[in-house]
């Protein structure tokens, strides 16, 4: 792991939840943007 030294600066108990929360938030933002700007995505998600 070539980026292992980051945990000397940021505690893993703080960094990992922040990272995973940011990934989840970005995913929700992208899905919401696609849902609002296309017509086929709502039909696809609705089945």
Give the helix proportion (percent range): over 70%
Q: Please count the helical segments.
A: 2
Q: Uncertain regions: pLDDT < 50 for 5+ in a row? A: none
Could you tell me how far the N terminus lies from the C terminus, measured between alpha carbons in angstroms? 42 Å
Give me the Rg, rounded: 17 Å
Q: Roughly what is the average pLDDT, rounded to an integer? A: 88
The main β sheet shows up as:
none
Number of strands: 0
Strand content: under 5%
| Secondary-structure element order, N to C | HH
Class based on secondary structure composition and strand pairing: mainly alpha
Outline? rod-shaped
The quaternary organization reads as: single chain
Report on this model:
By secondary structure, the chain is mainly alpha-helical. It has two helices and no strands. The protein is rod-shaped, with a radius of gyration of 17 Å.
